[in-house]
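Worked example 3. Consider a protein that binds magnesium ion.
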Amino acid sequence: MECRYNEVTTTHAQPPAVFSPDTLTSNAAKYLTSKKLDNSSNALSKIDGAFVGTSPRPSKTALMVTPGRFSPASSLFICGMEESKKQTHCLVCPITGSRLPEIRLQDIIFTKVDTRAEEYKCLGTGVTSAVFEGQVVINNCGLKSVAVKLFKQPFDNLEGISAEAGLLKMLEQTGITPKLFGILQRTSEGNQPGIVQELIQSSITLHQLIVGTPFITKQKWYNIAYQLAFGLKSINEQGVLINDLKSDNILVNISTDDCRLTFIDMGHASYMHGKRFPMTTEQASICRHLAPEIANGEETSESSEVFALGVIFKDIPLEELSFISHKCLSKIPLLRPSVYDILNFVEEIM
Ligand SMILES: Nc1ncnc2c1ncn2[C@@H]1O[C@H](COP(=O)(O)OP(=O)(O)OP(=O)(O)O)[C@@H](O)[C@H]1O
Ligand SMILES: [Mg+2]
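Given these inputs, the predicted complex is written out as structure tokens:
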């Protein structure tokens, strides 16, 4: 079944994770070009765990991948920068208008799974991408640990990727999203496009924490609930709607006392307006984080973000959250609390 997440209010349509028709392991290899993932070899490399399933998870399964295609929208290369040693072009975010640095593939050292094998450490996979750990040389700043999000077809459109990167850059000031280092420079060899962002160390997804075994104290769950409400408030206050808020897209650093959260994945986000995601009833039933009005063709809004937050709150093992989560999940958007009400509520129960 060909299912697409058609976004009708802007030109930056991206299919959603869950509706992708190409999530099978058997199709995985064709999405990534691993040629010269680092500069050490011309041979095809193995990508560790790329696209093994639909839900993001680290994996130790290696796949042999074959070269893919990279078709940039040439109009995006609009800032003629001086021919410098590091950069010949930069991209501009179609949403924020900000300049996005390009990072050369050869400046990235992808982390290998072991020293001998040509297998690279995959931090997680989603439907649109696989994310790899590495280090990058940043001008005058030395080496930085990075997470490189490599996109697969049909999600590898530069316009959408530049939009995601630009929003990440804009959200840096909130302190709850990964820093943006840049976009992978395309090469004549046709590497797949990617976003180079701050590596969130020692993290697991909130989904993994909710369903998994790591035990954390009640106090830490309160901290998580607080950071969720605070983070959503901070992002919405910047004019950004995440439009895909779910526990898979939240990273938790469980090694810190406060279980520090990071909101990742702005792949469906919008700026200063909502988006429509037309879908069938069957598709809507898979997306439990999407508010009912969105499934009915309305635009996303701060209220649909609150609905998504309510879904996460429902999954968090704190009884005290059930009252507010129930309110967030109201079918009528106007009956949902604001993110400010939610933040006050969480502060009171902490
Ligand atoms: N900055 C980061 N630091 C560490 N791990 C990360 C980072 N960004 C992403 N990951 C890992 O990669 C996974 C996939 O990332 P992301 O959600 O951005 O990709 P996606 O393909 O858009 O996923 P989805 O299918 O949910 O839309 C995450 O769940 C997480 O495990
Ligand atoms: Mg994701």
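Take a moment to read the result before moving on. Residues 1-88 have pLDDT under 50 and may be disordered. The chain has nine helices and 18 strands.
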